Each structure stands twice: as C-alpha cells, then as structure tokens.
C-alpha cells in the first residue's frame, strides 16, 4: 500500500466535499435566474445539509462492517453522479432532488477519510497530518466562492458541478490502485431497526431546527416532527440495548474520549456559525463596510484554524492532550468575551482579531480531540465513532443557528439600527456563554499521558478504560 497516494486521494475528495458547501453560494443568483424557482433556493442548501448529516452515521457503520475502501469508493461515485445530474438540471426542483443525490455521497467523505487516517497512520503521524487536513478545509472555504464567481462570470454555472468530475475520478483511481486495505471486515449484519429509528429521530430534529424559524416552532407540522424525534429516539435506545450488534453501540457514549469531544464540538461550532451569519450583518448594516470586508472578517478564521492545528501537533509532543485542549478552549472563551464586548464604535480590525483567535483556538482543540477519537476505539468501531463527530458538528451548527435566530428576532424585530445592534449583541453574548460551557466540557477530557498516546503503540488509548 502506498500511503502517500492514498493521502493524496483523500485530500482531493475532502477538498471537493468542503468546496461544495461554499462554491454554490456565489453561483446561486445565476442559477435562480436560469432555472427560476426562487422559492426553492433555500431548499438546495437545506436538503444538502440534512442528508449529509443523517447519512454520516450509516456510512460510518457500513465502513466498520464491510470495509473502508469499498464504501468510500461507492460514496464518491454517488457524489460524482449527483454532481453531473446537478449540472444537467433544467428546473429548480430537479436541482433540489439532484443535490440530495450529491449529499448521499458527501455524507461518507468526512467520517470514512478520518477513519482511514486512523487505520493507516500512528497517533504521532496523525498530529502532523491534522495541519494538512485543516489547510485543505481552509483553502476550500476561501477558493470555493472565488472559483464559483469566476465560473459564473466567464463560463456557465453548470461547471461548478461538472468541475467535480475530473478530480473525483482521479481520487477514485488513486484509491483503487494505491489503497490496499489491511482492515478485515467482519461478517456481521447491520442493525436496520436501530439505524432507521436513529436516522428518523435525528432527521426529525434537524427538520424542526431548519424550518421552524419559517413556519414557527409551535406549528402543527413542527410539533409532529418534534414528537417523532422523541418517539424514535426512545425506540433507538430500547433497540440498541437489546441487539447483539447495535447500529451505534451505547458504550461509545460512555467512553469519555468519544463523549467529551462530541459535546465540545456541539458547543464550539456555535461560534463559527453565529459569526458567519451575524458578522456580515453587523459590519455592513452598522459599520457600513463592503461585502468584501465582511467576507474577509469571516474567512480569516480559516487562516487561524490550520495554524492552530499545526501548533497543536507540536504541543502534543510536549504537553498532555488534555492541557492542549484546554488551551484551545481557553482561546475560544477569550474570543467569546471579546465578541460580547463589541459595540458600534469597535474598530473593524478587532473583528479580524476575534476570528483569527477563534479559528486558532478551534484548530488547537479540535485537532487534539480528533486524534483522541481516532485512537479511542478499536478498528471495528472506528467508522461509527468518527461519524458521530461529523454528526455533532452539523447538529451544533443547526441547533444554535435556530436558537440564535429566535433570540435575534426577539430583540431586533423593528429593523431599526439600534434594535439591530441590540439583537446581534444579545446573540454574541449568548455565544460567549456557550464558549464558557465548551471550556467546562474540555476540562473533562481524559487525563491520557503522551506516552499512552504515542509510545504505547496504536490502540493503547482504546485499551485504557476512559
């Protein structure tokens, strides 16, 4: 097995998946002008987010049961098929449906690529690679809107989807020839009752959060989905306690090296989603800055993230993982405190500093926690374990943007500048409080030493009861 080529193929598909979340935004006006159907515009984003989130755990489990290579290659093929179909769409409804197909493949990419990295690299090697992965995500966030804008201006919007095809095929070829899977999938069957109940419960919650702000959280439809979330959640827990091969083993939720990183991610991702939405609104409406300035204020976090990931890789060789995590979480608390103190006279460069520090803090803490998760379970459970991380990232962003939307609307309903400032300031204060909660969660990271993580061999953390 050629690990270097496997890494290249993983980086390519990670880049495509991450870029897909941003490249469509700059092209959406041209898409709507061509296909019409403005009322379905938001659905193209919501459907992609929803299906990506709910398919992540099932892909993680399938990778545990039937092997990483086979499932990842199938998912990439589905993603590419969805991309071609999106590029060929002639109505907005078709685009929404084909985005769903695209998302069916995209849901596998993060959990399985991270699982493969956990399989073929040692914990020490993983610390060096996390900086590379973070750089890929940062680069995709920056160049995605730029490429989308260039394509729309000089070509046809359909090429934002067709562009995935050559790079995706290259990734498939590299995987097929370079990746010789050492993991031996067991002859086990998937717990379909547990899987369906889990996915129905999570999907119902995401639907409430995604659309509750438009139709009202207390509307009959949303109350029905809320009831489904609770009911199928109860069914899921009951089933998982009884089956011999559960879809998501409940002991994973009792493993602090899995539980704490997931809780931290859920809370910490409130910061980037809130600032992505409300920084541009504050800077453009209250500071009268251009969209370029507000966009740069948000994007600068993607510079701090890979820097933080690289720093974490070096710090972990000298300090225990818990101490490094707490350091990153502390930067988030500090950034949240600065966020809560913003006023209408705060200089614009302060916004840049806040996002740079927050990105650095997230890069530090998430890198450590990702490595802990990759090594907290045995091979046979690594796929489902890593899928919980991706799911909690999405859940955190979805839940908190819904909560912040309710808070903002409660204080800024008039649309006047003073009310607008007050509403956003209350949201930023809430973000600060959530970051403090994330810091408290980080204090619960298992006290694993450097020797246990790096020197005792792969799987040492998994063998320790945490």
Automatic annotation (TrEMBL):
Molecular function in Gene Ontology: transmembrane transporter activity
Cellular component, GO annotation: plasma membrane
Membrane topology: Multi-pass membrane protein
InterPro entries, A to Z: MFS, MFS_dom, MFS_trans_sf
Residue ranges of domain Major facilitator superfamily (MFS) profile in the record: 6-450
Keywords associated with the record: Cell membrane, Membrane, Transmembrane, Transmembrane helix, Transport
Subcellular location: Cell membrane
Membrane spanning stretches: 40-59, 71-97, 103-121, 133-153, 159-178, 190-211, 217-239, 259-280, 292-312, 324-342, 348-369, 390-412, 424-445
Main location per the UniProt record: membrane
Transport listed as a keyword: yes
PANTHER family hit by this protein: MAJOR FACILITATOR SUPERFAMILY, VACUOLAR BASIC AMINO ACID TRANSPORTER 4
The protein's name: Major facilitator superfamily (MFS) profile domain-containing protein
Organism of derivation: Paenibacillus elgii
């Amino acid at each position: 097995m050629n690990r270097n080529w496997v890494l290249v193929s993983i980086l390519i598909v990670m880049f495509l998946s991450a870029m897909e979340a941003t490249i469509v935004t700059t092209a959406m006006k041209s898409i709507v002008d061509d296909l019409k159907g403005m009322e379905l515009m938001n659905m193209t984003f919501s459907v992609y987010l929803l299906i990506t989130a709910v398919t992540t755990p099932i892909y993680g489990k399938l990778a545990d049961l039937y092997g990483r290579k086979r499932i990842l290659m199938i998912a990439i093929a589905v993603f590419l098929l969805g991309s071609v179909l999106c590029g060929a769409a002639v109505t907005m409804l078709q685009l929404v449906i084909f985005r769903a197909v695209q998302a069916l493949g995209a849901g596998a990419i993060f959990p399985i690529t991270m699982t493969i990295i956990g399989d073929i690299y040692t914990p020490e090697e993983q610390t060096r690679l996390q900086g590379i992965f973070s750089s890929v995500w940062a680069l995709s966030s920056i160049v995605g809107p730029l490429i989308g804008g260039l394509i729309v201006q000089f070509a046809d919007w359909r090429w934002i989807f067709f562009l995935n095809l050559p790079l995706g095929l290259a990734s498939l070829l590299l995987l097929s020839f370079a990746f010789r899977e050492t993991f031996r999938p067991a002859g086990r069957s998937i717990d379909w009752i547990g899987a369906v109940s889990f996915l129905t419960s999570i999907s119902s919650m995401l639907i409430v959060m995604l659309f509750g702000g438009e139709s009202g959280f207390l509307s009959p439809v949303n109350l029905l989905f809320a009831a489904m979330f609770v009911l199928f959640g109860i069914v899921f827990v009951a089933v998982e306690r009884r089956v011999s091969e559960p879809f998501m083993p409940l002991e994973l939720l009792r493993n602090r090296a899995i539980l704490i990183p997931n809780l931290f991610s859920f809370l910490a991702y409130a910061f980037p989603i809130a600032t992505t939405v409300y920084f541009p609104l504050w800077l453009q409406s209250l500071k009268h800055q251009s969209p370029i300035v507000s966009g740069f204020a948000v994007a600068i976090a993607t510079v701090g993230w890979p820097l933080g990931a690289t720093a974490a890789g070096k710090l972990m060789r000298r300090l225990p993982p818990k101490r490094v995590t707490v350091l990153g979480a502390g930067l988030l608390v500090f950034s949240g405190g600065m966020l809560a103190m913003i006023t209408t006279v705060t200089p614009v460069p302060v916004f840049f500093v806040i996002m740079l520090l927050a990105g650095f803090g997230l890069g530090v803490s998430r890198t450590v926690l990702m490595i802990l998760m990759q090594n907290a379970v045995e091979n046979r459970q690594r796929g489902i374990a890593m899928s919980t991380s991706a799911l909690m990232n999405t859940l955190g962003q979805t839940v908190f943007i819904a909560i912040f939307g309710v808070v903002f609307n409660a204080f800024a309903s008039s649309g006047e500048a003073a009310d607008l400032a007050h509403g956003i300031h209350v949201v930023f204060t809430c973000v600060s409080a959530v970051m403090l909660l994330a810091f408290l969660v980080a204090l619960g990271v298992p006290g694993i030493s450097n020797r246990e993580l790096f020197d005792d061999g792969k799987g040492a953390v998994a063998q320790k009861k945490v």
